[in-house]
Design a protein that fits this description.
With about 400 residues, the protein is α/β, with parallel strands linked by helices. The protein has helices spanning about 20-25, 40-55, 75-95, 110-120, 140-145, 165-180, 200, 270-305, 335-345, 375-395, and strands at about 65-70, 105, 125, 150-155, 185-190, 215-220, 230-235, 250, 255-260, 310-315, 320-325, 355, 365-370. The strands form three sheets. It has a seven-stranded mixed β-sheet with strand order 1-7-6-5-4-2-3, sandwiched between helices. The protein has a four-stranded antiparallel β-sheet with strand order 10-11-13-12. It is globular, with a radius of gyration of 22 Å. About 50% of the residues are buried. The structure holds pyridoxal-5'-phosphate. Pyridoxal-5'-phosphate binds near residues 72 and 410.
């Protein structure tokens, strides 16, 4: 009864694996990445991936950065958030000030940040969407930041709409805040999906370590990183940005190995597959794959924009290879996007419908992610199925429909 993963266009996660990736996963099925003494070459491979990403994200001295693999961006965000909390706490204690009320400021974030805030006792100050904006705006920051702000999270590839938050402008607003009131607030970029997209197809966008205030970045290897499910990455600008107190030295696996992670035992195959993909595809290979996805998303957007029932929210240009749209006249359409989700599900497509975050909850949107393995041919089939479903719903209105969210998106 599971869906066909290739027709799941609600997820960012990799659903494509070539034969070499399958063989590497098979060969490494018995490797535990935490046993760094037992599997030193896997540890070396993990380290090389970290430095390749640091370099991709323009760390000033990529060989001096630090970072690690994780199970995904959620764990990576927790580690990034914890590092911010400890840096803040150390600074406050040194100044003889209270450390009772840390807060973190962000726009519409993925649920992992709600978890981070609750699990680790930090107040989440989620700035509501204002006007037509889809993300955090620089001019909103000053009203939400104070001396207890451990950091600002900027999202590269907002979960709800797939657009990028303006990291450079947010950093500029924080520079002004430092000048005006002396608060020096670091930025963590949650680049779960954008971290493997922007460097390849939007190379001129400034969002990464090229901005001094960006101290850490996470990304999901298993999203646009193209690796199989189960790997994420977090990288700090320099070793100074990761407090020593969070690193544990472990000797009971042989040797004396540093570890910074929420988990202990974990499969190594995804890390090895990530390294293989980075080497196998190279910069040019990733660029071609992501550009093809972006072209397909834009093709789909052009087709959807021609349907009078639909109004585009994001047309696949300038951010993730995806589209996001809403009903042009939701009150008089005779059906809801939830009905449309149900209808296309009959053809096997999984498309999530959901509300935008506060203060735009009245807007229901749908989002379609184009990733490796979702071809132009599939996009043509999908577009036809959406058109046919809308025609059917217009001819057979469902004014009393109680259709609601049937499954979640990530
Ligand atoms: C997907 C996503 C996450 C969570 O990542 P996982 O790899 O699924 O744990 C966090 N933040 C953003 C912006 C995401 O898109």
């Amino acid at each position: 009864m599971d869906g066909n993963s290739r027709q799941n266009v609600a997820t960012f996660c990799t659903t494509y694996a070539d034969d070499e990736v399958r063989r590497l996963m098979d060969l490494s099925i018995d490797k535990n990445m935490i046993d760094k003494d037992e599997y030193p070459q896997t540890a070396e491979i993990e380290k090389r991936c970290v430095h390749m990403l640091a370099d991709l994200w323009h760390a000033p001295r990529s060989w001096e950065t630090t970072g690690c693999s994780t199970t995904g961006s959620s764990e990576a965000c927790m580690l990034g958030g914890l590092a911010l909390k400890w840096q803040w706490k150390k600074r406050r204690l040194a100044e003889g000030k209270s450390v009772n009320k840390p807060n973190i400021v962000c726009g519409p974030v993925q649920v992992c940040w709600d978890k981070f805030a609750r699990y680790f006792d930090v107040e989440l100050r989620q700035v509501p969407l204002s006007g037509d904006s889809l993300g955090l705006q620089p001019e909103q920051l000053a009203a939400y930041c104070d001396e207890n702000t451990i950091g600002v999270v900027a999202t590269l590839g907002i979960t709800f709409t797939c657009v990028y938050e303006p990291v450079k402008a947010l950093a500029g607003a924080l520079d002004a805040l430092q000048r005006d009131v002396g608060l020096d607030i670091p930025i963590h970029v949650d680049a779960a999906s954008g971290g493997f997209v922007a460097p390849f197809i939007q190379p001129d966008l400034e969002w990464d370590f090229s901005i001094e205030r960006v101290k850490s970045i996470n990304s999901s290897g298993h999203k646009y990183g193209l690796a199989p499910l189960g790997v994420g990455w977090v990288v700090w600008r320099s070793v100074k940005d990761l407090p020593d107190e969070l690193i544990f030295m472990v000797d009971y696996l042989g040797g004396n190995m540093p570890t910074f992670a929420l988990n202990f035992s974990r499969p190594a195959g995804q890390i090895i597959a990530q390294y293989y993909l980075l080497l196998r595809l190279g910069h040019e290979g990733y660029r071609r794959i992501q550009q093809e996805c972006a072209d397909t998303a834009q093709f789909l957007a052009e087709g959807l924009a021609k349907l009078s029932a639909i109004e585009m929210v994001y047309d696949g240009r300038g951010a993730l290879p995806a589209v996001c749209y809403k009903l042009r006249h939701p009150d008089t359409a005779g059906f809801s996007l939830f009905d449309l989700s149900d209808r296309v599900r009959m053809r096997g497509w999984q498309i999530a419908s959901y509300k935008l975050p506060a203060d735009r909850e009245e807007t229901i949107v749908q989002r379609i992610l184009i990733r490796r393995g979702i071809t132009r041919d599939m996009a043509v089939l999908l577009l036809n199925d959406i058109k046919n479903a809308i025609t059917h719903l217009l001819e057979n209105p469902a004014p009393n429909s109680k259709a609601g969210p049937s499954f979640h998106h990530d």
